[in-house]
From TrEMBL:
The keyword Chaperone does not apply. InterPro entries: Folylpolyglutamate_synth_CS (IPR018109), Mur-like_cat_sf (IPR036565), Mur_ligase_C (IPR004101), Mur_ligase_C_dom_sf (IPR036615), Mur_ligase_cen (IPR013221), Mur_ligase_N (IPR000713), MurE/MurF_N (IPR035911), UDP-N-AcMur-Glu-dNH2Pim_ligase (IPR005761). Gene3D superfamilies: Mur ligase, C-terminal domain, Mur-like, catalytic domain, MurE/MurF, N-terminal domain. Pathway: Cell wall biogenesis; peptidoglycan biosynthesis. It is an enzyme of class 6 (ligase). The lineage of its organism: Bacteria, Bacillati, Actinomycetota, Actinomycetes, Micrococcales. ATP binds at residues 128-134. Keywords: ATP-binding, Cell cycle, Cell division, Cell shape, Cell wall biogenesis/degradation, Cytoplasm, Ligase, Magnesium, Nucleotide-binding, Peptidoglycan synthesis. The modification N6-carboxylysine is found at residue 237. This is UDP-N-acetylmuramyl-tripeptide synthetase. Catalyzes the addition of an amino acid to the nucleotide precursor UDP-N-acetylmuramoyl-L-alanyl-D-glutamate (UMAG) in the biosynthesis of bacterial cell-wall peptidoglycan. It is found in: Cytoplasm.
Amino acid sequence: MGPVAPRILRPEHPTPRPLTGLVEAFELTVEADLDGIEVTGVTLDSSDVEPGDLFAALPGARRHGAEFAAAALEQGAVAVVTDPAGAAMLETGAPVIVLDDPRAALGEISAWVYRTGEDRPRLFGVTGTNGKTSTSFMLEGLLADLGFVTGLSTTAERHVGDLVVTSKLTTPEASELHALLARMREAGVRAAVLEVSAQAIERHRIDGVVFDVVAFTNLSHDHLDDYGSMDAYFDVKAELFTPDRAERGVVCVDTEWGRRIAERSRIPVTTVTSEPGVDADWHVDIWEETPSSTSFTLTGIDGGAVEVQIPFIGRHMAIDAAIAILMLVEDGFEMDAIAEVIDRGMRPTLPGRIERVSGEEGPAVFLDYGHSPDAFVQTLEALRRVTEGRLVMLFGADGDRDATKRADMGRIAAELADAVVVTDFNPRTEDAASIRAQVLGGARAAAGGKPVIESSPEEAAIREALRLAGPGDTVLWAGPGDADYRDVAGVREPFDARAEARRALEEAGWPTEERGERPARDVR
Ligand SMILES: CC(=O)N[C@H]1[C@@H](OP(=O)(O)OP(=O)(O)OC[C@H]2O[C@@H](n3ccc(=O)[nH]c3=O)[C@H](O)[C@@H]2O)O[C@H](CO)[C@@H](O)[C@@H]1O[C@H](C)C(=O)N[C@@H](C)C(=O)N[C@H](CCC(=O)O)C(=O)O
Ligand SMILES: Nc1ncnc2c1ncn2[C@@H]1O[C@H](COP(=O)(O)OP(=O)(O)OP(=O)(O)O)[C@@H](O)[C@H]1O
């Protein structure tokens, strides 16, 4: 099997634009003859160059993109945009546009090249530490049920109508985002939902886009390696709620962070909560939780109400669904029209988020993408409420990512589950055993007499977890979700945790639940 390579979607029939037009539009100075040069695309990655591209040679943490400019030109790039340091590294006869901060201009330039300011789909953006993918999939599902050809950009997948590809980053780089929007326009997409990470806001990935409606799910401990403090992390997220970024917003005020977003927002926002004592425009009241669904009423202060059943477990999933519904309301949809499609049954695909892989007999086994302390709390509490027997938690902490959350993840697992198996999860360039030791430290300190077992690799760990579980028990494997790879020593190798869990279940003599393929979609 070869390496795992996510695909980048671009327009299939781009309209060439003269480079002179770009230079005029942005009042740039270029010392080269630009006559006859036409641009059809933009990329910042030399492995993604197509003939006619403008290659953005950007400074990075590891390399300078200018190191790859010669290769990009050889593959057909027609010009380079870079910073002064990059320009000093270049020896080329091709036109070079020099900007002090080319990353900050990339969104606008890409929007110009791909003409994404014109005739674009309705745009919905979802931010927050957890729940972005879940909310985005549920919103896309509702939009499709309302009759729209939809687009989606998440950590898991990008969709253009029926075409589905896997993603590399949660939010694509600006050049890729505008190419995706142009592809959506070609495909007749009328509404698109995009996950917006903090890194995307800060690193100019969503520049050149103004969302019709944005939403904030929550903020909890994650990414402190990038931001240093929760306040700094919050400040980046809050920027999405400004007129340059969006028209209107929906904010979940279950947490203090949400209340602060609502207060600080410079665009009109509507608020929603699942906490009974909290003031908000909309309330979520859960009235039934089963091993396969959650039912709730969403009630507005003006008296409007809708009853909703989602095919997912947990209060967190109910809040994600409520946010998706309210994003439609904020965009002007009538609640009656939304209620009608909800009544027909919400059946969004949601890969790897609290996804059951086991059958009716034997232990229930769920795969979940959660990889932060709050995600663990939400998922374990939800599963506890629908589990008669014991709850076994299998997980690892990812390498080259916020190490300060590892012991906490161990502690939460030991406190909320009955048995814990600590394994590996994308160690990347770190030593896997030392990551496990940090997680085990937190788990063992909180475990009391509960079993805490170390098991590596993941293939052995899921079998270990199943040995601890029987009928009536639940095994939660948190971390990999729907990912089709694992990153070991900086190399992505194919790994499908859902398939591995099914194999382990079958070996143990238990039936599994195959999710139906999605025949209507072109999955690549
Ligand atoms: C911190 C960060 O976001 N880094 C991203 C950034 O890296 P960088 O700017 O430091 O780039 P670099 O590797 O030094 O290379 C410099 C330049 O040379 C180019 N290059 C490099 C090699 C080559 O062969 N050819 C080439 O053209 C690169 O495209 C880049 O423009 O640009 C790269 C190219 O797009 C990204 O792959 C890389 O994401 C890294 C892998 C990453 O893991 N980012 C994470 C932190 C991230 O963004 N996560 C959020 C989601 C978080 C969440 O909510 O969970 C996301 O939106 O995905
Ligand atoms: N509203 C929520 N509050 C807290 N945790 C949640 C919420 N929704 C989902 N989660 C948990 O977070 C995990 C990740 O969910 P999801 O993929 O939807 O979030 P995300 O924000 O897209 O994550 P990432 O940024 O890492 O892609 C879920 O598997 C679940 O464990």
